[in-house]
Specification:
This protein has 129 residues and is mainly beta. It is built from no helices and 14 strands. It is 0% helix and 60% strand. A hairpin with a 2-residue loop joins strand 2 and strand 3. The radius of gyration is 14 Å and the shape is globular.
Length: 129
């Protein structure tokens, strides 16, 4: 636990994890957004702690404020965005068979990472090659 990473959109930190779950704190910088992505092995539950989130789930846009929550089913295309001037803080609870960082298919990405596709857990394929 305590794993963390800086990303182009902000940062994340693991708060707790165990068999079948992981809890993270996400900080999304103003006017940034995460990839539009899917996960094969996990669902996500987002709770907005501070700021205002724009959430896209399977193409449906929803606004969320502090205290609101959003559920992302396994396999759903989703994106978290901060369209405002203050940082967005979200607690993300992942639930599923596998919660590794490599369970991701990026459908769209502002930072040039959309060509990287996960075919199976632990096996990366770069579709740009």
């Amino acid at each position: 636990m305590g794993e963390s990473d800086a990303r182009p959109w902000g940062s994340w930190e693991v708060l707790d994890e165990g068999l079948g779950y992981k809890a993270k704190r996400l900080v999304v910088r103003p006017h940034q957004r995460l990839s539009y992505q899917t996960h094969a092995y996990r669902a996500e539950h987002w709770v907005v702690v501070s700021g205002r989130a724009t959430c896209v789930i399977n193409g449906v846009v929803r606004q969320a404020r502090a205290g609101d929550y959003v559920d992302v089913p396994v396999g759903a295309a989703h994106r978290l965005m901060n369209e405002h001037d203050e940082p967005l803080v979200v607690i993300e609870v992942q639930r599923g068979l596998y919660t590794g960082e490599d369970d991701i298919v990026r459908l769209e990405d502002d930072y040039g990472r959309a060509g990287v596709i996960i075919e199976s857990v632990g096996r990366l394929v770069d579709s740009r090659l």
